[in-house]
Amino acid sequence: MQEQQSYFYNFYSKERQNCRMFYFFFESRKAKADPVVIWLTGGPGCSSELALFYENGPFKLTNNLSLVWNDYGWDKVSNIIYIDQPTGTGFSYSSSDQDTRYNETGVSNDLYNFLQAFFKVHPDYVKNDFYIMGESYAGHYIPALATRINKGNKKKKGIHINLKGMGIGNGLTNPEIQYPAYTDFALANKIISKTDYDKINLQIPACVKAIRQCGTTGTETCYSAYIKCQPLLFDIINLIDNKNYYDIRKKCEGRYCYDFSQVEKFLEEVSVKKALGVPSNIRFVSCNNRVQDAMINDWMRNLALGIPDLLEQNIQLLIYTGEFDLICNWLGNWRWVHAMAWSGQKEFVAASNVSYLVDGKEAGILKNHGPLTFIKVQNAGHMVPMDQPRVALRMLELWITGKLTSLQNDVVPPL
């Protein structure tokens, strides 16, 4: 019988008497020895329950708010954790403003402490391979957490976490490279004109300069970079006639261009809260703007800087991107991955693009060298597991078993 649990992780300290991080844990449907995956939804400030119920969790919500099994849940091949973080996201809460997180140092420390507590409670999983997965703003969270785990492991403090890899879906990781790609992606997909392209591009030099001034530790300079760079995206959004900027094939409908009202209704039901152990006065909000506002100075920092050290230790990195997402588009991700300096950079750049095949059919384009793999997924937007659930599950299964790159052999033209 599959183990399914929801918990609050309590921060036990004098300073943090009422800070609780909420998470779900689902044991693999196949084998307890399968890898442990922690899933981080982005935002910042968006609940991982969005992924649980709309993307890759064990269950889907029906129109009458009942649960049905998801045939493509990632718990089919992994033991998976969904956590609401930073504090203030989803059901995670605190009674103190001291628990508000403003940068990746605070975020990664909280997640690391959570994992230490998780493996203490679940010692049977300590030796399992461990992977960090997520999408969107998790392009910041994931490298930061991987670095924090690696640091803890090297210092031999606490429980050793068997970190094997990081998987980032349509992430924001290196804004200096990704923001200038907005106009190129929009023009190539014919959602803006050449005149609009040239006009918006006039803002790029100031944006790039501001991001460089932000660096990795700036505060006011990072806010200035955010103000200077966001118009590159917003000016495009204002021109695309209510298109969904997470999937340019669709219309933007609802608060987040998608209708997530079902999960909000479900998790606000009294009986559901009681079953999950959630206090009745804690409201579930899909995405918390206060968390996002608190993280504003973190937005323009380059989290790719810590990745090369992890690659040199053979910690795997999978970057997968739905081809129709604008907001964290494949082109910007493609560019920063190729620009990243590490010992295998030349070989990665020179590697051939090959078909990513699922059930004998091309589902995307794959490029790999050593521990670094990039996949452009066909017919998907920002949330690949929602748009292409079979493709995403197969991708995870092959990646964590080391078979993702060995099965591809059809060379395709350069992108």
Describe the structure.
The protein has 415 residues and is an alpha/beta fold. It has two domains: 4-175 and 257-289 and 299-400, 3-Layer(aba) Sandwich (Rossmann fold); 177-245, no CATH class. It contains 16 helices and 15 strands. It has helices at residues 49-56, 104-121, 138-155, 175-178, 181-188, 194-201, 204-214, 220-237, 261-268, 270-276, 289-294, 307-312, 330-339, 345-350, 384-387, 389-400; strands spanning 4-10, 19-26, 36-40, 59-61, 67-69, 79-83, 93-94, 130-136, 163-171, 243-244, 247-251, 316-322, 354-358, 361-369, 372-377. The strands form three sheets. Strands 1, 2, 3, 6, 7, 8, 9, 12, 13, 14 and 15 form an eleven-stranded mixed beta sheet that branches. It has a two-stranded antiparallel sheet with strand order 4-5. Helix 5 (181-188) packs antiparallel against helix 6. The chain is globular and about 55 Å long. The model is unreliable at 11-16 (pLDDT under 50).
What profile does the largest beta sheet have?
11 strands, mixed
- How many DSSP E strands? 15
Overall pLDDT level: 92
Strand content: 15-25%
Rg result: 20 Å
State the helicity in percent bands.
25-40%
CATH architectural category of the largest domain: 3-Layer(aba) Sandwich
For this structure, the CATH topology of the largest domain is: Rossmann fold
Terminal-residue CA separation: 45 Å
CATH class annotation of the largest domain: Alpha Beta
Q: Which shape, going by the Cα principal axes?
A: globular
Can you tell me the CATH superfamily of the largest domain?
A: Alpha/Beta hydrolase fold, catalytic domain
What is the domain tally?
A: 2
- Weakly predicted, low-confidence segments: 11-16
Helix/strand-derived category reads: alpha/beta
**Helix count from the secondary structure assignment:** 16
